[in-house]
Design brief:
The chain has about 180 residues and is mainly alpha-helical. About 80% of the residues lie in helices and about 0% in strands. It starts with a helix and ends with a helix.
Length: about 180
């Protein structure tokens, strides 16, 4: 993951070293503090996932009920992110579980609430997990002539999208199998 806050702190640290002199232990202590600093509070992560899912559902033409369901699914995706960030370092399982949860609960909600298009809800919710940075960096590398790194990044991004889609499809199927639809 790219943490621009930490990048800015390391940049400030480098400018500080340029102006003043620090001994090695003091410099390492400051770098350790930067490396171990918290990124965002959990409340901010919950709010961003939920609001992003809701807003993109509206942008895709969703109604109020679809937006509310996407908001709740966004919360569930935030929980998955926080759980996997603490326990696992393998991101593909997180993407699969995110797709599964979004697919399962969007199709489940469409069975209980009228006027819900599960496809709009799942699309709005899964925008949180789209690998935008990998796609942009892959295209940028290809345009700069770095074919190998560009293809690797694009391949990684396409693999992540495929895993999200597989998780959502299996979530749709699991809900149908459980509730005989």
């Amino acid at each position: 993951a790219i943490n621009l806050g930490k990048v800015a702190k390391v940049n400030d640290f480098a400018r500080c070293i340029e102006i003043t002199t620090l001994d090695f232990p003091e410099a390492m202590e400051k770098l350790d503090r930067i490396a171990n600093s918290k990124t965002y509070p959990q409340a901010v992560i919950f709010a961003s996932y939920s609001l992003t899912a809701a807003i993109f559902t509206l942008l895709y033409g969703g109604n109020f009920a679809e937006t509310a369901v996407a908001f709740v699914i966004g919360m569930l995706l935030a929980i998955i992110r926080l759980l996997f960030a603490q326990r696992f370092r393998f991101p593909f399982f997180e993407y699969f579980m995110g797709g599964f949860v979004a697919g399962f609960f969007s199709i489940l909600a469409s069975g209980f609430i009228t006027n819900i298009n599960a496809y709009i809800v799942v699309t709005g919710a899964l925008i949180n997990l789209m690998p935008g940075t990998a796609l942009v960096n892959g295209v940028r590398d290809m345009l700069h002539g770095d074919s190998v790194s560009g293809q690797a990044r694009l391949g990684e991004a396409l693999l992540m999208v495929s895993i999200l889609a597989a998780g959502a499809a299996i979530g749709f199927g699991a809900e149908g199998a459980l509730f005989h639809r």
